[in-house]
Amino acid sequence: MRLLRIIGALVVISALATNAMAYSNPIFDARRAAEDLRAATRALKDARIAKDRVKALSRTIKAYEDGLAAMRDSLRKAAIRERALRLELASRRDQLSQLLGVLQTLERASAPLLLIHPSGPLGTARAGQILTEITPALVAQAKELRAQVEEIVLLKSLQSTAREDLQQGLKGVQDARLSLTRALGQRTNLPKRFTTDPAKLKTLLENSDTLTGFANGLVDLPFDSTTQTGAISPKSFSDAKGEIPLPVFGTILRRYKEADAAGLRRPGILISAPAVSLVTAPWAATVRYRGPLLDYGNVIILEPEAGYLIVLAGLGQVYGEVGEILAAGDPIGLLSGQEPTTDDFLVEATQGSGKIQLETLYVEIRQNRKTVDPEAWFARQNR
């Protein structure tokens, strides 16, 4: 009878062990994310004295954003894993108690006593053989159970240890953004094309009642000179289809001409990303316009080559000036919204509710006055 109890308990723990293998390790992920944030902090110190501070600070901000996103994801997985373990252990409380009882009996009883069988020497030999085969596995599975209990303890403590890493990471990315703003204000060596007549640009802006009308009018509003230096790409924009990176690290919320909640279909894509995320030029381009436009908020329009325009709308802050020639990856602005706090990260992880504010960036690509599907141009991987 005792052997049947042992075998039954062993089956239960084997199932627990099998389930434990079907998840990624959120503790390891959180530690790796914390190290990424610390690496970004070290990079920030170097970026402040780098020869090209704008480029170095932009990379640092991206590193911070990657680290914070990874920390957010790992904390959410850790909370889910902890709840799953607790529910699983609670649902098998009786069976686990039975296992612990059997293990305690095996520990207290002497080996000769355990091997005595009422059917005589043959039964005793068979019982001994069975115990010899299953006892090591039973002990191994008991260790696995203890590891799961210890894992719960580690997952619980992860929240408190992550707080300090999050605080340092959030402070670091804020400092990096301020440093970037100052560096952009002090930059004087950016190549420029002769700009469009400001009066004509103002007239076009005042007389445009749609984004399409403004963009088409911009094409008809040429620069005073076609002279252009700097930011030359080895490949033309038209040949880079499917290769250019998204301008912000986020998720495509609405696709090209997909209807929104009000049934409105826009000829662009909508990217959802955390508030105040850095937006960068996806390709070397000239700034054709920057500033407020209709109901799109702050807009920047880039010309990667003749016949093409990239429209980015919904920015909270815009960098650059009309006529400047940007390299791929140069900062062009920040999304709007409020920077999340440490508590926002922790509450979202433990409660499963969205406490971290998300903003959206609207993106159009225009070719010869017509919109094209931006998803066909952007690479599958954001970074």
Q: Give the helix proportion (percent range).
A: 40-55%
Globally, the shape reads elongated
Number of helices: 9
Order of secondary-structure elements: HHHHHHHHEEEEEEEEHEE
**Class by helix and strand content?**
alpha+beta
If you average the pLDDT, what whole number results? 78
Strand percentage lies at 15-25%
| Whole-number tally of structural domains | 2
Strand count? 10
> How does the major sheet shape up?
10 strands, antiparallel
Measured distance between first and last alpha carbons: 60 Å
Radius of gyration: 30 Å
pLDDT < 50 stretches: 1-23, 113-117
Brief synopsis:
The chain has about 375 residues and is α+β, with helices and mostly antiparallel strands. It folds into two domains: about 1-185, no CATH class; about 200-375, Glucose Permease (Domain IIA). It has helices at about 1-20, 25-45, 55-90, 95-110, 110-115, 120-185, 200-205, 210-220, 340-350, and strands at about 250-255, 270-275, 280, 285-290, 300-305, 310-320, 325, 330-335, 360-365, 370.
SSE arrangement:
Elements: H1 2-20, H2 26-47, H3 53-91, H4 93-108, H5 111-115, H6 121-186, H7 198-207, H8 211-219, E1 251-254, E2 269-274, E3 278-280, E4 285-292, E5 298-303, E6 308-318, E7 325-326, E8 331-335, H9 342-351, E9 358-367, E10 370-372
Antiparallel strand pairs: 1-2, 2-9, 3-8, 4-5, 4-7, 5-6, 6-8, 6-9, 9-10
Helix pairs in contact: 1-4, 1-6, 2-3, 2-6, 3-6, 3-9, 6-9
